[in-house]
Amino acid sequence: MNAITPIEPGASVALGAPIDVTIENVQKAFGDTPALHGVSLDVKAGELVALLGPSGSGKTTLLRILAGLDAPTAGRVLFGGEDALGLRVQDRNVGFVFQHYALFRHMTVFDNIAFGLTVRARGERPAKAEIRKRVLHLLDLVQLSGLDKRYPSQLSGGQRQRVALARALAIEPRVLLLDEPFGALDAQVRKDLRRWLREIHDRTGHTTFFVTHDQEEALELADRVVVMSKGRIEQVGTPDEIYDAPASPFVFGFIGESSFLPVTVVDGAVQFDGAPLDLAALGTPSGPATLGFRPHDVTIVDDDQPALTGQIVAERRHGGARRLDVEVGPERHRVEIDMAVEHSRREGGMVAFRPHRWRIFAR
Amino acid sequence: MSDGAFTTARLPGASAIHFRPVTMERRRVRVALILVSLAFLALFLMMPLVAVFVEAFRGGLPAYWEAIFEPDAAAAIRLTLLVAAISVPCNLVFGLAASWAIAKFDFRGKSLLNTLIDLPFSVSPVIAGLIYVLLFGSQSLLGPWLKSEGIQVIFAVPGIVLATIFVTFPFVARELIPLMEQQGRGDEEAALSLGASGWQVFFRVTLPNVKWALLYGVLLCNARAMGEFGAVSVVSGHIRGLTNTMPLHVEILYNEYNFAAAFAVASLLALLALFTLVVKSVLEWRYAEEIAATRRH
Q1: Fewest 10 Å CB contacts: which of A5, A233, A266, A326?
Q2: In terms of domains, do A234 and A286 share one?
Q3: Neighbours of B84 (CB within 10 A)
Q4: Which residues 198-257 of A are in CB contact (within 8 Å) with B?
């Protein structure tokens, strides 16, 4: 009963396998303000790619350029090897899902989903019965069967976003683009929809881009994550690569909680404030560098082993651990470390610690 | 915690405390404020309105009908309807186009256009009329050419239509611009990405999103177009049976001490105003949910 029948291809759109997307040196400036400085990216057919970055990083601009809602100042975009920039947004055949849903409020759920089919020219428009079949199938796919006569204002946020996705899928897009699709939803709904979106993607297999500023969402959902900052791509990689081998302090800092210290690398070993730390920095050239570590990747040192020592300036409960703000070295660099709750160090006291996982970035 | 903790309100003495919302005034103040408002409304709105109808029917129903169906009055009514029938659709198209441009696109001179739309609100209607006399009258630059082509603008229907369009053109745009700006461009972008053409986007997404505001704007525009006096008075020339609209006809009758007839025609205009208000209220009541939905998602 619940078996999903494959969506039948439309009369006009030759929907075959999902397509590759190639972005070549795309630049965009709004007036004198640059938004993208030469972004290049190759995405394989059927991949689910997250564009991750803080606001102002250019991720939404890139998405809108792919959709045809904005035009780049320079560069090329290829859909399956064909130039896409020459096509108007209407002809590009992309499914776009907006953060604030952009559902047509005067239409029922059914009419919203059917919109992309009913606006087609007469010769290309599927028959009424065919449209109905497809809409009901999509409603089933997004698990909203029975709500076809509702208006958007009668739906919850999560339901609206699922309608928006069904509407985008109805035109059998070559590429699916989602702009912060879960940004306006509360935490629990976000989590559910995340898992659900992954399932839909695995079932329909569209080449998909989604924009987010939530690193957890990106790492959990995407096949590959593109980390962006200030109009540039900082790193492209699988979630594991991004988390375990961040290419820059920015990526390291954006992907999770982090602390940084200026250090010196001497012959593959790390020194802080002139003292060796017994941390390996293989492959990093000698000279000034940045040491990055996460608060929970820290061991408190009670013996005479080499360690970072500092004064505790603040202390607070953080989940299952105790979080300390520690000022280290003569320049009083502030770092955050976690400590087991049983430890009895207090504000004003001294603490010695050493990261057991760390990254060294040459400066 | 047991329910006992919440029984303190029933303790002796506690019942004397009356809580009222902090924004609610005392009863005496409330009554006084309501009475002042009612008195003001009665004095300045209800009494004149009642007076119009009392005066109109002073001579009895036959005199009333005669005043309305007398040829000059009938001509004035026809002219008023004609002027409204031309100027309201013009302003509907203009208002939609201007608000669409202002709300959905960025272009140079946008704020200038936005300011110009308000011009008729800030200019005295008499001056608006005079401008058209200066532009199209016989003493104007265009005057001789218009005369040689046999086109009469001033002291004729075209002038009245022009003056009415000028005076009423902010009504539709002012109603639509804030709503369209608040709705943003998301719906249009979604429709485009789904393959809709520009016209399809307009007729299937943009227009339905603003239809109630548009209807309000048209109602207000129509009421003003039929009631406009100042600008029309300057360009009309007051030719009985030819260039007199209803408000001008009322004035002429009044100046001739024909009070019963003046008030009879005036009562028609008052009825139009009441009709506009009723339609607006009925729409608001009947479609409250849908109207709220178009403003907010």
Answers
A1: A5
A2: no
A3: 23
A4: none
CB–CB contact B297 A151 (8 Å): no
The CATH number that applies at residue A346 is 2.40.50.140
| Closest CA–CA distance from residue B126 to any residue of chain A (Å) | 42
User: Count of A–B CB contacts within 8 Å?
Assistant: 78
For the CA atoms of B284, B290, B296, B297, the dihedral, rounded to the nearest 10 degrees, stands at 170
Answer yes or no: do A106 and B191 touch at CB < 8 A.
Answer: no
Say if residue A230 is in the same domain as residue A283: no
Name the residue among A68, A105, A119 with its Cβ closest to that of B200: A119
Q: Which residues make Cβ contacts (< 8 Å) with residue B192, sequence separation at least 6? A: A69, A89, A90, B201
Please list every residue in chain A whose beta carbon sits closer than 8 Å to the beta carbon of residue B196.
90, 115-116, 119
Where do runs of H (alpha helix) occur along chain B?
27-41, 47-56, 60-69, 71-104, 110-117, 119-122, 125-136, 143-149, 157-168, 170-183, 186-193, 198-201, 207-227, 230-236, 246-255, 259-286, 288-295
Q: Which domain holds residue A354?
A: 257-362
Give the pLDDT confidence of B105-142 residue by residue, as tens digits.
888 888 898 899 989 989 899 998 898 888 888 777 78
Mutation target vs B (from A60, A64, A89; most B CBs, 10 A cutoff)? A89
Q: What is the CA radius of gyration of chain B?
A: 26
Rounded to two decimals, the ipTM of the complex is: 0.83
- Chosen domain end from A216, A249, A282: A249
